[in-house]
Amino acid sequence: MKDVLIQYMKRFSNLSEAELKELIIDIPVATFEKGTILLHQGEIPDKCYFVLQGCVRQYAVDENGNESTYNFFTEEQSITIFNQHTTDKASQYALSCLEDCTLVVGDLAAEQDSYDMHPVLEAMTRKMIQEDMGAMRDEFSAFISSTPEERFHALMEKRPDLIDRVPQYQLASYLGITPESFSRIKKRAEASHLKIVD
């Protein structure tokens, strides 16, 4: 299972596969059942994750009990809640396993110790974070300037697997539309696809 992590790390390092295997030998991997809450909203995060298998949802619940979905993390994606800029360091989000998950589990408190032991890991992590932050910024800019229909088509183009892995109402929330609108847009897209195939 760690082969997924090695393939991902190759994108950010010139180390050989043997060197990468040596680097991750002590990295903890854990399995979590579907429905497991990895982080409750309001808790101070002390872990970060990398998805080897499964799907994790990032969401928040407002004072009226309404849920809003902000992201889905699937294979070869890292999960870190960045909140060092806040006064109490509490997470505004919750993390929940939508499927049975196999995750690399990092201890944020021991992060510097890992870097001291493996200096190459710090440079690699910095590159990973830069790529993640850049992708998030681009996605947010595209999201703000797009219509619901365009958001749906972007989802189908970039992450089509989510359609079969995530409940429709959560996908609707992620796209910032109602479940009814999501259903209508999906039906139009399916009808359009059928015409193209014909």
From TrEMBL:
Key words, A-Z: Kinase, Transferase
Q: Which GO terms describe its molecular function?
A: kinase activity
Gene3D superfamilies named in the record: Jelly Rolls
Positions of the Cyclic nucleotide-binding domain: 11-57
Q: Does the keyword Transferase apply?
A: yes
PROSITE patterns reported for this sequence: CNMP_BINDING_3 (PS50042)
The family database entries (CDD domains) matched by this protein are listed as: CAP_ED
One Pfam family per UniProt: cNMP_binding
The keyword Kinase belongs to this UniProt entry's keyword annotation: yes
The name of this protein is cAMP-binding domain of CRP or a regulatory subunit of cAMP-dependent protein kinases
The organism of origin for this protein = Acidaminobacter hydrogenoformans DSM 2784
Provide the taxonomic classification: Bacteria, Bacillati, Bacillota, Clostridia, Peptostreptococcales
